[in-house]
Amino acid sequence: MKKILSTALVLSLAAGMLTGCGGGKSDDTNTLKISGLNGGYGTKGWEAVVKAFEKKEGVKVELNLEKNIAETLRPVITSGKDVPDLIYLSVGSEGGLVDTMISDKAIAEISDVLDMKVYGEDVKVKDKIIPGFTNSFATKPYGDGKLYLAPFTYDPCGLFYNAGLFEQKGWTVPTTWDEMWELGEKAKAEGIALFTYPTTGYFDAFFSALLNETVGADAYTKLMEYDTKTWQSAETKKAFEIVGKLAQYTEANTVANANKDNFTKNQQLILDNKALFCPNGTWLPDEMSEAPRAEGFKWGFMALPKVSAEGDSYSSTFSEQVYIPSKAKNADLAKKFITFMYSDEAAKLFAEESGCVLPTTTASSYLPEKVKDKDGNEIDNQKTLFYQIYDNGAKSCTVGFKSVDAIEGVDLTSAEGILYGTVNSVVTGDKTVDEWYNAVIDAVKKYDK
After folding, report:
1. Structural domain ending residue among the three candidates 385, 415, 431
2. pLDDT digits (tens, 9 = 90+) for 111-146
3. Is residue 120 situated within a structural domain?
4. Which first-to-last residue range defines the signal peptide (predicted)?
5. Residue 39's domain spans which residues?
6. Exposure of 410 by Cβ count < 10 A (0-12 exposed, 13-18 middle, 19+ buried)?
7. 170-173 contact pairs (CB < 8 A, 24+)
8. At residue 13, does pLDDT exceed 50?
9. How far, in Å, CA of 246 to CA of 427, rounded?
10. Number of domains forming the structure of the chain
11. In terms of domains, do 400 and 355 share one?
């Protein structure tokens, strides 16, 4: 499942003195309070980076990572007392705390961080971050060009499959949707479904990539701004029609298991050769590391097929964020920590200790070459393959709508909402593609002011 995080911990070293990046001294004791969600990548990366920052900067850092951090932080944010200086909890995460903070203007602007130098390096933050990561509605939620959330880790999202099965069958991985349908017929003849999905929540990344393919990057931005005219275009509807056809090739038990309790059963279909493709992010192999699998199984990963041979292939990027609450007491120190987060030193620690990759131009190179499998044997780290997806011709796109005031009774974008949640009904045949599409248009109109 999308990285759900666990366990609380508090780290601290002796407090020191602070003046600048050089770790100078003053008479004041400084404490940086960081709170966040903990789980998918474990705790070791954060521990190592915090420890390094404390040593360099001569400050005390209190790190608190919890499984239910949204519940823990909500009353703190509401009261404005003892608010953390930095929060690690992604937009759209369970509990909706971040989305509420954005709506309430409770997050500080950090545009100036982009022009600051990366801690200990002679390069500006904006030049170290991979292009595009600071230009999404997840980082600039108000569409005003100002940065409020800093991109933290990133995970390419696409279609996972058993590369070993394709080798055994002599099948070619499809590069266009027409080839996808041809493969679907071949697989059906052998009792294998073409497609499955963990839950409808995974269609945020899937549908974002698909819309970029059908309408193009510029029009996609308009879609994320709730532009009704763009949503009503034939190119936009094409994406709905592709999902509708894909529904016809979806494994029969997918909808029944597409929930938080049974989603791994759908993911298991890929390992058992009962379905060919499953949308997910780079965390999937770790999540299924202990699961049984067919003989010769080998993870494969691809961007979405192109709409036409001349078109573009897209892979959405699922990115997490860190940000400074507007009521934080140590905002300047928090900004300094963010610049350290983008350093090669910190990126290396995060990659080696937790296996997560920062959205910098060098971070993916620090992933370990070897990892241990479920039996303790050393194997090649397949994550390096996943992060090469953009080197192999796929274009990157981000996920997320512009921040707008909520409308009572309208749920457009949650996992159960009109845009993504209705996929279950399309797969079962309870709703047609036209009914789904028209419901989305009606919802968009309410936001298009």
Report:
1. 385
2. 999 999 999 999 999 999 988 889 889 999 998 999
3. yes
4. 1-20
5. 29-153+317-385
6. middle
7. 173/300, 173/302
8. no
9. 8
10. 2
11. no
